[in-house]
Amino acid sequence: MPSPQSLCNFALPIFYNGLHSLIHILEKAESFARSQMLDPDEVYVHARLVEDQLPLVFQVQNTVKTVVINLNRLTGTELSPDLNKGNKEVTFEEMLHLIRLATIEVKSVMDNQPNEERSRETIDLLAGGRPIKLTVSEAVRLHGIPNFIFHVTTAYSILRAKGVPLGKVDFISGFVGW
């Protein structure tokens, strides 16, 4: 099991870089829509891959929510009130602002490593509707990161399905800092 320090060194860059990947994807979609004389807020914000899946705006909000939950788990504190306002974003500008606020929070936690004891604490988590007990380390590694990747990937896929010229490099570039 990773030490708390290594857990932060592992998880926080994934969140930070993944948020940058999502910013890049959204900015590219916004630019593409405008080049096609389309309003990105009208065309993409409520777009879905399939009818029973939640829209782009939900994917963005849940990406940030997942980051906030996991930062709270790692630090044991509540983060910026600006990130806990609720799901009120309805435009690209608002979604991008929310993601940028989250990157600031992640960077702050990266700069001030959390208490090493936190990762061994046990928390209650709902997984598939069932309550389970996990350590903070397990919750971040086994639930938080996969959930984060799922929502970033789904946002990418929605925009790709709507015709935005995105490729693998657009998804990966933010994660590796290109």
Offer a concise description of the structure:
This protein has about 180 residues and is mainly α. It has helices at about 5-35, 40-45, 55-75, 90-110, 135-160, 170-175, and strands spanning about 120-125, 130-135.
CATH homologous superfamily identity: dinb family like domain
Q: Whole-Å distance between the termini?
A: 30 Å
Q: Specify the CATH class.
A: Mainly Alpha
Architecture, according to CATH?
Up-down Bundle
**Topology, number of strands:** 2
Backbone CA Rg: 17 Å
Reported for the largest beta sheet, the result is: 2 strands, antiparallel
Spatial arrangement of strands, main beta sheet: 1-2
Mean pLDDT reading: 89
**Strand-residue proportion:** 5-15%
Reading the helices and strands in chain order gives HHHHEEHH
CATH topology group? Four Helix Bundle (Hemerythrin (Met), subunit A)
Continuous helix count: 6
Shape: globular
Number of domains: 1
What structural category do the secondary elements indicate? mainly alpha
**Sequence stretches where pLDDT stays below 50 over 5 or more residues:** none
Indicate the percent of residues in helices. Answer: 55-70%
Protein name: DUF1993 domain-containing protein
Pfam family, one: DUF1993
Organism: Triangularia verruculosa
